[in-house]
């Protein structure tokens, strides 16, 4: 398994967020992005994955922008990036950085209301 400290992994996630186009980044209000080691069995089952054989790189939890009402007092949405599945899936640092960037973009896409079929 590829190795990268949690702190460095979090820096790569932060750079991926910083790399979003400015107009999209400005719309990411009331969204928290966190790094966790791996998804729970419940999280996997909630998205239709088998905890024994499948995993996630990231997860969007919340109400997508296109489904929101006018109220702005809701709890923040969450984008979770799962560190261990990404480390296990990648062969080298360059691939890991690309996968983290792709995962961040993918989950941000869900925030904007894009479905799985609309995302890379």
Features:
120 residues; 5 helices; Zincin-like; 41% helix
Summarize the structure.
This protein is an alpha+beta fold.
Topology:
Elements: H1 6-18, H2 22-25, E1 31-36, H3 41-46, E2 58-61, E3 77-82, H4 83-89, H5 93-111
Parallel strand pairs: 1-3
Antiparallel strand pairs: 2-3
Q: What does the model show?
A:
With 120 residues, the protein is an alpha+beta fold. It has one domain: 2-Layer Sandwich (Zincin-like). 41% of the residues lie in helices and 13% in strands. Strands 1-3-2 form a three-stranded mixed sheet. Helix 1 (6-18) crosses helix 5. The protein starts with 5 loop residues before the first helix and ends in a 9-residue tail after the last helix. The mean pLDDT is 91.
What's the CATH first level? Alpha Beta
- State the low-pLDDT regions, or none: none
The dominant shape is: globular
Supply the number of helical segments.
5
* Domains (count): 1
Helical content class: 40-55%
**What CATH architecture would you give?**
2-Layer Sandwich
Give the biggest beta sheet: 3 strands, mixed
Roughly what is the average pLDDT, rounded to an integer? 91
Radius of gyration: 14 Å
Distance between the termini: 25 Å
Please give the number of β-strands.
Answer: 3
Strand order, largest beta sheet: 1-3-2
**Main structural class:** alpha+beta
Strand residue content = 5-15%
What's the order of the H and E elements?
Answer: HHEHEEHH
